[in-house]
Amino acid sequence: MKRAGFGMAAWLIPTAWAIPLAWGAPPAADPASIVTLQVENDAVSTYRGTSDQYYTSGVRLGYVAPTTATPDFLTEFGRTVWGDGTQRISVQLAQSIFTPRNTQARPPDPRDRPYAGYLHADAALIHDTTDTRSVLQVSLGVVGPSALGEQVQNGFHSLIGDTPNRGWRSQLRDEPAVEVLLEQTYRLPITRFSGVEVDALPALTAGIGTVRDYVQVGGTVRFGQGLDSDFGAPRIRPGLSGSDAYTPTRPFAWYVFAGLDGQAIGRDIFLDGSTFRNSPHTTKRAFLGEAQAGLAVMAFGVRLTYSQVFQTPSFDRQRSGLFNFGSLALSARF
């Protein structure tokens, strides 16, 4: 059983709980539900894509309940941990797919990133004040053939007449996947001029479990109107994410944004290999940097966001330089 780095995240998460994370007045109750569909892929990148390699696909379907639907015991829990605020429950189902650079080699290069699929369901408590968003999320899922990575990827390739990826027989074997995530985002107004606002969203995230042990520090700067409608564009984690909850504060809200984050990684199953058995693996880098930029538009209760993401190499033999992909999310309130 390989758990290098477990101690780092295990120390940092309870330490974060001890910090007074939230301030500001509770926002007004929000009776709306929110549904989000998100896709991450080089196919939606505005930059020249890196084709089917490494983090090759992510899809996510999320639901956020009204603030009035939060059970009393979770409301009390949120207030005990973070202070006064408004609580919401969110749930989501997501799948991520990872492949090596050469997807036609059979068997794949043993020094490259292993094939892996990851299917998981998440439940989160979102605690908002006017200035902060706190998220506690628990994820349960599976890494391995039961995550259906091969079927989804090669099925789509068959549909569009593309060549199937040939090394899926070497993918990481089935194992249960558990992760606990704690995230804090602050909304700091900077200035306002000619009806346009500028703010900053510094954020701290820590995750621990059988999937990934990591700590992430970063921030986003935004320029637009109605910035108090949300806490930034959503992403499939890891990465800077404002999550799915938003409440438009004007008929038409918009912003452009740019952000940077750094991740210290104790363990990553998709690079280090299976937790409980020998498996394909590669030499992970302990630190990962990301840059992202994009835009968000909100109108008629609908939010559309796009993020262009660039990542530094995540393992020693990664050959693509800066890895890039696009992240597109469509949300609707009802």
Explain this structure to me?
The protein is mainly β and 334 residues long. Helices cover 12% and strands 46% of the residues. It has four helices and 13 strands. The chain has a twelve-stranded antiparallel β-barrel. Strand 4 and strand 5 (132-143) form a beta hairpin. The radius of gyration is 20 Å and the shape is globular. Residues 14-20 have low confidence and may be disordered.
Task: Please specify the SSE layout and strand pairing.
Blueprint: H1 6-17, E1 34-41, E2 54-64, H2 72-82, E3 86-99, E4 116-128, E5 132-143, H3 149-160, E6 175-186, E7 188-193, E8 196-209, E9 212-225, E10 252-268, H4 269-272, E11 287-299, E12 302-311, E13 323-333
Antiparallel strand pairs: 1-2, 1-13, 2-3, 3-4, 4-5, 5-6, 6-8, 7-8, 8-9, 9-10, 10-11, 11-12, 12-13
Query: Biggest sheet: strands, sense, closure?
Result: 12 strands, antiparallel, barrel
Taken as a percent bin, the fraction of beta residues is over 45%
Measured between the Cα atoms of the first and last residue, the distance is 46 Å
Please tally the β strands and state the result.
Answer: 13
The secondary structure category is mainly beta
Number of helices: 4
Spatial sequence of strands, sheet with the most strands? 1-2-3-4-5-6-8-9-10-11-12-13
Q: Helical residue percent?
A: 10-25%
SSE pattern, N- to C-terminal: HEEHEEEHEEEEEHEEE
Average pLDDT, to the nearest integer?
91
